[in-house]
TrEMBL record:
The name this protein goes by in its record: Transmembrane 9 superfamily member
Gene name of the encoded protein: TM9SF3
Signal peptide coordinates: none
Principal location listed in the UniProt entry: membrane
A Pfam family it matches: EMP70
Family recorded in the similarity comment: Belongs to the nonaspanin (TM9SF) (TC 9.A.2) family.
Compartmental location: Membrane
GO cellular component, one term: membrane
InterPro entries linked: EMP70 (IPR004240)
GO BP terms in the entry: protein localization to membrane
Amino acid sequence: MPATYCEIDLDKEKRDAFVYAIKNHYWYQMYIDDLPIWGIVGEADENGEDYYLWTYKKLEIGFNGNRIVDVNLTSEGKVKLVPNTKIQMSYSVKWKKSDVKFEDRFDKYLDPSFFQHRIHWFSIFNSFMMVIFLVGLVSMILMRTLRKDYARYSKEEEMDDMDRDLGDEYGWKQVHGDVFRPSSHPLIFSSLIGSGCQIFAVSLIVIIVAMIEDLYTERGSMLSTAIFVYAATSPVNGYFGGSLYARQGGRRWIKQMFIGAFLIPAMVCGTAFFINFIAIYYHASRAIPFGTMVAVCCICFFVILPLNLVGTILGRNLSGQPNFPCRVNAVPRPIPEKKWFMEPAVIVCLGGILPFGSIFIEMYFIFTSFWAYKIYYVYGFMMLVLVILCIVTVCVTIVCTYFLLNAEDYRWQWTSFLSAASTAIYVYMYSFYYYFFKTKMYGLFQTSFYFGYMAVFSTALGIMCGNIAHWTPLYFI
């Protein structure tokens, strides 16, 4: 027998709210033992004049032993929405035995036809072809050009001082006394590099855990794992950020440690809390409880900060001494004029195109799983894309750095970082396309929710790519 769980006094305001939801095809999502079920609010008649609400929820729950393995929802009881009436909402539950194993109960929610579509495989293959082409191109260009440069420089070393002074000197060897000069704003730069190292470590570990453990089978397990791994890898941030800051001659290491420790948490928590206030205003179920906010703040102050301090002290003591192969000149060398396409601003704008091109198909699948309620489970693909992104970023930044130094411009640190970090701008631009053409979101809450979290995702991706783009040219130089 159906059981009544609530009664609605349908005044005009409530009727208008239901009509609005039915007109816009609203549906709801519920969970029973972490298994999602979906239902539609109601439907309109053929003329669009009368609107009906589904009032009876028929739940069919399959069990195997003492575990729930299957849930189905059927909506019945169509009632016309008439103002100033009472509507009873009821439900019933039917239990049935099922042969589905508990570990296989999520299989029906996965969408192999979508995630393992030929386009997905083709995009991975296409990206691999791009990697092979780029690696070959970089190897060929650098081997040929560097061989020519070495031949030219060795010829110059055989000249006497008079011929060398009269000779036409140009190229990367002229900036050997400035190439290891500390970057401008070393405090911010080292904090970004440390955060990038941590984001890369978190991404790698979480993807590996997701490949092994099937994290999609429990609600919130992916987020919990990411928070735990982020907190545990805080020494990575402190070590690389603190050692880089020390090598660049920085003295305010405590300030650098605080900025490095709270850069990403402040960005994520600030965005989440801002969206949360909007969610509370709209009485949305997405609102984060106050206790969760306090818990996240406690993790930042009592876990992330102390571990970051440990990493910073280790980094300063173990690898904080400069060990550059060239001495840095006391007076900076003037930077000569160069072609417009050799300017750092142009290199920064163009540097993110190829890394974005290698991942943008995967971005579509990730966005769809996050914003369109599909369960993402092909983490092997994600690991391949991460590897491809790293290789493409390495190749692009080596070429960009070579051209910049060959133009006798030694400001490579920020240029290489920003050239790869500009991938974030292209990802964020793609999110605009996805919002307007692939989703049906509207209103202040949905818009702020989407663009707020996409900004966090894009920024974190940019910092990670910029970190990769810093270490590669450093070893190359």
